[in-house]
Amino acid sequence: SKHEENQRESQPALKVAHQTIKDLQARLDKKEEMLKKCQNQLVQVRQGQEEMIRRHQEELRVLHEKLDVHSDISLDRFKQTAMELMKKPTIRVQTSKHLERLAELEQTVAEQDISLSSIKEKLKLTTAALERQRSITEAQAKEHANKLEKLEE
Questions:
Q1: Sequential DSSP letters for 5-69
Q2: pLDDT tens digits for 101-126?
Q3: Domain residue ranges of the chain, discontinuous segments joined by +
């Protein structure tokens, strides 16, 4: 009877304990399910990133190929133009004539620059002399005016 009485007294506590275990198990199951969802999402994100990296690498490879082709074409055009220019002897004659004319023009400019500098220096000297002469003339005019006043007195 004691045993039955203990069972009756522990029966509600046992029910509460079973219910708590069921609730905790349900929460644990929910958390595991959420963990699986997160892991699946992480796998999907990684796959997406890997796919994006592959696409970017492919785009980069294609761009490098285009750049190489463009560089090759430009180099070929440059070589072809250089060869064409080397085949035309008339360009060299015109170029040397142009260089001679350019040298003549540079010489003319240098001579004119020297001449202009000389004229500029002469102009400065003349201006200074003119200013001195003006000062002397003004001084003489004042002196003359002073003498006239003295004479009039």
A1: HHHHHHHHHHHHHHHHHHHHHHHHHHHHHHHHHHHHHHHHHHHHHHHHHHHHHHHHHHHHHHHHH
A2: 889 999 999 999 999 999 999 999 99
A3: 1-88, 91-152
Q: Tokens in use for 125?
A: 């000297």
Q: Which DSSP string do the residues of 69-126 spell out, in sequence order? A: HHHHHHHHHHHHHHHHHHH-HHHHHHHHHHHHHHHHHHHHHHHHHHHHHHHHHHHHHH
Q: What is the pLDDT of residue 45?
A: 92
Residues in the chain, total: 153
**CA dist., res. 94 & res. 42, Å (int):** 73
Quick check: pTM over 0.70?
no
> Which residue did the predictor score with more confidence, 130 or 99?
130
